[in-house]
């Protein structure tokens, strides 16, 4: 009987610890320029698709409010900041791909859009890091 109680207590403790680990949601405001400067960015971004953060850019809007919500595993990424850079580059690339699909030349008025909350900045993006997953959501207008 004492062994069963110990196992039950250990199981309950692990369940509570697991819930707390999944509940982590650390918010970061990180520099866009820093994410775009990582060595991997050169292979990911398309310099022919102009990206304008936090304000309208040149061109006619062909799709307003295009949204991307990218998540990345924290495993093997090191710090939260590195995982955030990966998630940001994935979201950035997805917006560029959408512009290309629609015949656009850029994306303007890009804002962070995590959980549909607008965070408009010309220099920072919003990232949320959990225990296992990191996410970045962006919204912007596809322009031609």
Question: How would you describe this structure to a colleague?
Answer:
There is one protein chain. The chain has one domain: Hypothetical protein apc22750. Chain B (Translation Initiation Factor IF3, 2-Layer Sandwich), CATH 3.30.110.70. It starts with a helix and ends with a strand. By secondary structure, the chain is an alpha+beta fold. It has helices at residues 2-23, 32-36, 41-44, 80-101, and strands at 26-31, 50-53, 61-73, 106-112, 124-129, 133-143. It contains four helices and six strands. Strands 1, 2, 3, 4, 5 and 6 form a six-stranded mixed sheet that branches. It is globular. It is 37% helix and 33% strand.
Compose a concise summary of this entry.
By secondary structure, the chain is an alpha+beta fold. It has helices at residues 2-23, 32-36, 41-44, 80-101; strands spanning 26-31, 50-53, 61-73, 106-112, 124-129, 133-143. Mean pLDDT is 88; it is low at 8-21.
């Amino acid at each position: 009987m004492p062994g069963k109680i110990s196992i039950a207590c250990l199981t309950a403790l692990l369940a509570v610890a697991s819930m707390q680990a999944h509940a982590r949601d650390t918010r970061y405001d990180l520099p866009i320029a820093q994410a775009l400067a990582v060595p991997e960015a050169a292979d990911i971004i398309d310099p022919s698709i102009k990206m304008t953060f936090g304000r309208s850019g040149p061109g006619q809007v062909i799709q307003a409010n295009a949204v991307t919500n990218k998540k990345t595993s924290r495993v093997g990424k090191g710090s939260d900041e590195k995982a955030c850079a990966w998630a940001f580059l994935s979201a950035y690339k997805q917006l560029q791909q959408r512009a290309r699909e629609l015949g656009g030349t850029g994306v303007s008025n890009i804002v962070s859009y995590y959980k549909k909350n607008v965070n408009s900045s010309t220099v920072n993006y919003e990232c949320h890091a959990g225990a296992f997953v990191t996410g970045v959501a962006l919204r912007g207008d596809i322009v031609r």
